Amino acid sequence: MRTRERQPRSRSWRLVAVVIAAAALVTTGPGAHADTDATGLGKPALSTHTPDISARTTATVSKGVWSCTLSATLPNRWYGGSGGGEQAFGNLNCTHVMPEIYIAVGLYRNGALIASTDSHKFSAAFANAFPSKSPHVSATYESGAIAAVLWPDNTVTEIPQIYSPAILL
């Protein structure tokens, strides 16, 4: 009986196999379902004025086992520089790493937006933002926060704006 020697496969054959496998993953992944695709994470805008009655200070959205909680904390006065000023805080905290998250936080003085900032992160479970305004002005202040989440299944949920309680600083 005659034995046949096996010829080693070339490295280019392995490369072709990897490319074919990657192409199969791309076409069968979550993006292959056009009816649930997200066109990208939009950046919702902060309201220019607070409502007459403040909304809740936290909001949680869920999708299956995933969830994210948006918080707006009480503004505070900081000291330093030319007399200091006021700042607001907000954060978005998710139970799992999300492909993309966005948060915008605003500082409101007597109900009007006076400062804002945002944070746009990829592959993250947490984002925060803290706008500040100086110099210090005695007034009533609130924090406001709004957010958006791109879930791992490639759908998007916007979290409506929430507000902290008002505080005199």
Descriptors:
mainly beta; 1 helix
Explain what you see.
The chain has 169 residues and is mainly β. It has 1 helix and 8 strands, in the order H-E-E-E-E-E-E-E-E. Strands 1, 2, 3, 4, 5, 6, 7 and 8 form an 8-stranded antiparallel sheet that branches. A hairpin with a 2-residue loop joins strand 1 and strand 2 (66-78). The longest helix has 18 residues, at 11-28. The radius of gyration is 24 Å and the shape is elongated. The N and C termini lie far apart (96 Å). 25% of the residues are buried.
Reconstruct the topology from this structure.
Elements lengths: L10 H18 L29 E6 L2 E13 L6 E25 L2 E18 L2 E2 L6 E11 L5 E8 L3 E2 L1
Antiparallel strand pairs: 1-2, 2-3, 3-4, 3-5, 3-6, 6-7, 6-8
Outline type: elongated
Structural class: mainly beta
The whole-number mean of residue pLDDT values reads 80
Biggest sheet details = 8 strands, antiparallel
First and last CA, distance: 96 Å
Question: Counting H and I runs of at least 4 residues, what is the number of helices?
Answer: 1
Helix proportion: 10-25%
**Spans with pLDDT under 50 lasting ≥5 residues?**
4-38
- The Cα radius of gyration reads 24 Å
Our estimate of the beta-strand percent is: over 45%
Number of beta strands? 8
N-to-C series of helices and strands: HEEEEEEEE
